[in-house]
Amino acid sequence: MSGLQTVRLFKKKFSSLILVCLIPLLVVSCGNSESDEKEFLQRAKDYRESRQLAAAALELKNILVSNPQHAEARYLLGKVKQEQGDAVTSEKETRRGLSAGWDEAASKRQLAEAMLRQGKFDEVLEEIRVKDQYPKATQAELLGLRAAAYSGLGKWEDAAEEIEAGEEVSPDAVWLLQSKARLAIYKKDRSTLSAVMKRALAAYPENKDLLLLSAVIAVEDKDEAAAMNALQKVIDLEPKKMISGWGRRAHLAMFRIYFKRKDMEAAKSSIEVVLRVYKNDPQSNYLGGLLAYSQKQYELAEERLNIVLRSMPEHREALLLLGRLNYQQKDYQQAAHYLEQVTSAYPDNKPAQALLGKTYMMLGQYDDAERKLRSITSDSAGDAELQALIGIVKMKSGDASTGIEEMKKALAHKPSDKRIRGELVNAYLASGNAGEAIRLLEEVVDSGDDNQQFRTKLVYSYVRVGQFDKAHALADEIISSQPDQARSYNLKAAVYEGQGNISATTENYTKALSIQSDNKQALFGLAHIDQLQGHDDKAEQRYLMILKNNPGDSSALVGLARLQAKKGLAEEALATLNKARESNPSALEARLILSSFYLSQGDAEKALLIANEAQAIAPNAPGAALAVARATMSSDINEALRLLENLVKYSPDYAEAHFNLAQARGITGDEAGTRQALERALELKPAYVKAQLSLAEMDLKAGKAGAALKVVDKVLQEQPGNAEAYVLQGDALLRQKGVAAAMGSYEQAAKISNKTVAIIRISRLYQIQGKTDEAISALEQWLQQHQDDFVVRFKLANLFLAKGDNDAAYKEYVHINKKFAENPAVLNDLAWLKLQRGDNDALNMAERASRLAPENPAIQDTYGWILLKTGRAESALIVLKKALDNMPDSSDIRYHYAAALAQTGDKEKARKELDEILKTGKPFSEKEAAQKLREQL
């Protein structure tokens, strides 16, 4: 061995020694004496005794660094890991201790428990055998563990045999008692269970498994105090500064008790303790989502439930809760999406099936709703509500007679159900059968029920059939019982109005307004009287007061439109009526929503098809005209501009039309026109957030970051969940304060929304910092959850290109090309990558891109370059000359053109072209290649 080799070997060994010494971060030097090991071992035992398990584990690892075969340290480390709830590491360390020579009986007992906690029931039964030479207590424990394994497999008779054998050896072994208790639960033998648990807890008062089991039993016995006492003991026994698996279960059990009691603050405390440690735990996040849903914190609920689905995409309860959440928010399409998953996987889940039926009904899919509800409905009292729901569906679909019959059957099954009775009353009234409605209502009122909804309906029903005496008497009773309620006087006014007593009607509506100044029913009533008396201006003010609180109120808009028409303001009346139609669920609205959806997905062709259908249904509806214009914008901007200019002319108060006109003008580069249209939209609709953000974006482009931030801050005060506002905030902060300030805003946007723009911004920030790998990683993580986000995939492919990882870029472009086979930009980049790979298909793909975008200089450049590289210099020269004419400032294209000149024999002109780009000194991607070619020429 040479001297140099000796030095290198010494350095290698010395470095390895340093590494071994430093890894455990010991407070002592490398290599422990026997006395050191004893000291570490004792400290570990002391720490374990005081439940400082992390410290105990560290002391044991100190021993094992210098003495990996220390059997007792390995065994104790396995025990500590077991107590921390880490059964996997416990099994590994216990096996190492056994191999190092630790006591077989103790090791097997600890090994069995570790395997059992991992659900390795078959492995326990195969590997763990009970030997006569083991201590009696250990034999009994192993038999108890084997019984638990049989129980886990559902083999209760085998479990009973193991328990019986164990009791003959040592009847008070803890695992034997646990298994015996679980067997008693299975057999529903309450007396045996009570006796076993009493004996077990007396012998092992700090055993967490037993305490948790006793809590479960107490909950079933409705003894919440005993359950909470047991759970608190588990929490008190937890290792310091950590939450083990036992502690997690205890906190979650406490949460369920608090939640059942409706003690939401205590429930919140319990779940948040767990979520701080187990951030991605499905069960904890589901319960956290349930709590958030119950408190109407829908965004937080959705966030937590989505965490559940990331690891357990078929989690039934999470899917069902997401269905309910979206139903509550009236996002019926999304509700149907989740509920269909639940009902497909769990067809016997009646609550999910029923909610899906209601969702279909809200979507106007009445046949689907009826089919779904009938599939789970039987002719019994238990399904009376479902029968009534079928009746409602039939009523909504226009089949009143069948709807009434279904509700009558439901009420016959459950005559005391007020909701069913109320729906049948509504059905009778809707079908014009006031007599039957009155009969049903009188049954309730005469029984002494003080349900105000039924009493109010009865008053209106009396008025409807002209029984004014009865109506007055019941209305007076209601006023006596609720003299401080505006609705009481509205009811009395309605009776007088039915009789034609205008003075008394006015008096009672005015009394209602004195109690509640914005009461809608009183305002409507007085507006009607104002019109009867010729006071149209007063009526208009009342309608405007209603619209101030509810801009989409269809009744107020119709009333206002009548007044406008009476004044000869036909255009204004038409706009107002169309707005009223848009505010109500209808076939027209469904088409408009569908058109908007397709447009958001980038499918303008389908969007235009649906928009044209909507316009055929309602030719004068601004919403339909707007849908047509928006769908036209991507394919023919000039036609879209014409449609929008026409729309704002005939619907000047339609804010959405002005906003979309601004977007169209922005595409054409008309900044002044864009700003004017946005400002007009905000005059019409001051709280129009999209218009506010668009103006802020214009300010930002003009270098006014401060002004943009003021607008964004105002929007976020009103809408803290607005992802677009956070993105714009990030853009402004990037200009004002730099990358760090902007990143938080972008991350918040990505957190609350699935919109692509946020993750693109995050990736860009990493690029600005020169962190290409982080930029790539952010996009790759996003694509794991959004595989069909081709905007992000395209961005990722470009990042790979910039990094020089052409193979990775090629894979992404192949994926993109499957979706966008005729996209010239995709074909262009894929052709270039194929050229680098020596793929003969590069020319064919570049030619296709060229045909699709004959005027795009970048695409023509790629095509020409590939022609040149594949030996078609003459053709390349023509194509590259055209590309250069369209983009004369591109040094890369000029270099490619010079190369084509050189290959076709015109070296003098090639030199001139190269000299022109090289003398500027400006950098470009192929500058080195251009210099080399110039030298050759």
Task: Kindly list the characteristics that best describe this protein.
Serine Threonine Protein Phosphatase 5, Tetratricopeptide repeat; 937 residues; 54 helices; disordered N terminus; mainly alpha; flat
Description:
It is a single chain. The chain is mainly alpha-helical and 937 residues long. Among the domains are: 483-584, Tetratricopeptide repeat domain (Serine Threonine Protein Phosphatase 5, Tetratricopeptide repeat, Alpha Horseshoe), CATH 1.25.40; 585-686, Tetratricopeptide repeat domain (Serine Threonine Protein Phosphatase 5, Tetratricopeptide repeat); 821-937, Serine Threonine Protein Phosphatase 5, Tetratricopeptide repeat (Alpha Horseshoe), CATH 1.25.40. Helix content is 78%, strand content 0%. The longest helix is centred in the N-terminal third of the chain and has 20 residues, at 3-22. It is flat, with a radius of gyration of 38 Å.
Mind sketching the topology for me?
Layout: H1 3-22, H2 34-49, H3 53-66, H4 71-84, H5 87-99, H6 104-117, H7 121-127, H8 136-152, H9 156-169, H10 174-187, H11 190-203, H12 208-220, H13 224-236, H14 245-261, H15 264-277, H16 282-294, H17 298-311, H18 316-328, H19 332-345, H20 350-362, H21 366-374, H22 384-396, H23 400-413, H24 418-430, H25 434-446, H26 452-465, H27 468-481, H28 486-499, H29 502-515, H30 520-532, H31 536-549, H32 554-566, H33 570-582, H34 587-600, H35 604-617, H36 622-633, H37 637-650, H38 655-667, H39 671-684, H40 689-701, H41 705-718, H42 723-736, H43 739-752, H44 756-768, H45 772-785, H46 790-803, H47 806-819, H48 824-836, H49 842-852, H50 857-869, H51 873-886, H52 891-903, H53 907-918, H54 927-936
Helix pairs in contact: 2-3, 3-4, 4-5, 4-6, 5-6, 6-8, 7-8, 8-9, 8-10, 9-10, 10-11, 12-13, 12-14, 13-14, 14-15, 15-16, 16-17, 16-18, 17-18, 18-19, 18-20, 19-20, 20-21, 21-22, 22-23, 22-24, 23-24, 24-25, 25-26, 26-27, 26-28, 27-28, 28-29, 29-30, 30-31, 31-32, 32-33, 34-35, 34-36, 35-36, ...
